[in-house]
Amino acid sequence: MTEEIAIIPGDGIGREVVPAAVRVLDALDLGLSFVTGEAGDGTLAETGEALPDKTVSLVTNADATLFGAAGETAADVILPLRSAVGSFANVRPARAYPGVDALKPETDLVFIRENTEGVYTGIESELSAGVTTLTRVVTEDASRQIAQFGFEYADERGDRVTVAHKANVMRTTDGQFLEGVADVAEERGVEYDTALMDALAMHLVMHPDEYDVVICPNLAGDMLSDLAAGLVGGLGLLPSANIGHDNALFEPVHGTAPDIAGDGIANPAAAILSAALLLDHLGYDDAGSRVRTAVEKTLEKGPHTPDLGGNASTEDVSSAITDRL
Ligand code: NAI
Ligand code: MG
Question: pTM for the whole thing?
Answer without folding.
Answer: 0.95
